[in-house]
Design goal:
Elements lengths: L6 H6 L1 H26 L19 H28 L5 H15 L9 H25 L11 H6 L2 H11 L3 H12 L4 H8 L3 H21 L1
Helix pairs in contact: 3-4, 3-5, 4-5, 5-9, 8-10, 9-10
């Protein structure tokens, strides 16, 4: 099986790709040789498989790789946008790539393939939250101010009429910012937001309410 060359696959899944390609090549060779032998003997004859024959490609792995490629193609841009709005800035693509790697390793533990998008959102939220905490710690222990460098993603995704809102969002507490972004930018339901943030629906309502109040005051004073 030939895998689509994706950034997250190049940086984190090269080993898996080489292993799958090796097994696929071996399986194809075995199938071809077996077909030739079977064509020359009666169909009732039983052909013992060599003891050192490698097993065929696991269909579950094939389905996983295909599903991950479809998810990457359909969700990557949306997740990068989510990471940017949450505060990942120039590291947004790295955050999303790491989220896809986490999904790759956890795939067989998902309750269903349909749960993958929610899992990706949850990982992105957690990774951005961790990044912001690291930045806060580094700024407290450094005398120099860390400059905010706008990434290509943030420049492309934020139009001029959105910049004031995004600037105000950056000043909100992390949980309030996450709740507002997931609700009004991602258009998620409270249940989905609660799952992504790892909190209760009641807490989601509280964060949205407080976040909207703080955002409104920030916009009035802008």
């Amino acid at each position: 099986m030939r895998h689509t060359d994706k950034p997250w696959r190049r940086t984190h899944l090269a080993t898996d790709t080489e292993s799958d390609a090796s097994r696929a090549g071996s399986a194809a060779g075995i199938a071809s040789a077996t077909s030739s032998v079977r064509a020359s003997v009666p169909t009732s004859a039983a052909l013992p498989m060599p003891a050192d024959t490698e097993p065929g490609v696991d269909l579950r792995d094939v389905e996983r790789e295909a599903a991950l490629i479809r998810l990457f193609d359909s969700r990557h841009a949306q997740l990068v946008r989510l990471a940017v709005l949450l505060g990942a800035e120039q590291e947004a693509e790295d955050v999303v790539a790491e989220a896809f790697c986490a999904l790759h390793h956890r795939w067989y533990r998902l309750r269903a393939p349909e749960a993958a998008p929610a899992y990706l959102r949850s990982v992105v939220c957690n990774l951005v939250r961790m990044r912001i905490r690291r930045l806060q710690v580094s700024r407290r222990h450094a005398d120099v101010e860390v400059s905010d460098i706008a990434s290509a993603e943030s420049t492309a995704l934020m139009h001029e009429d959105q910049r004031q809102v995004v600037d105000a969002l950056k000043n909100l507490p992390a949980r309030q910012r996450e709740a507002l972004v997931l609700r009004y930018w991602m258009d998620l339901k409270e249940r989905e937001i609660a799952e992504a943030m790892g909190i209760s629906k009641g807490a989601v309502k509280s964060h949205i309410s407080r976040g909207m109040h703080a955002l409104s005051r920030a916009m009035e004073n802008h």
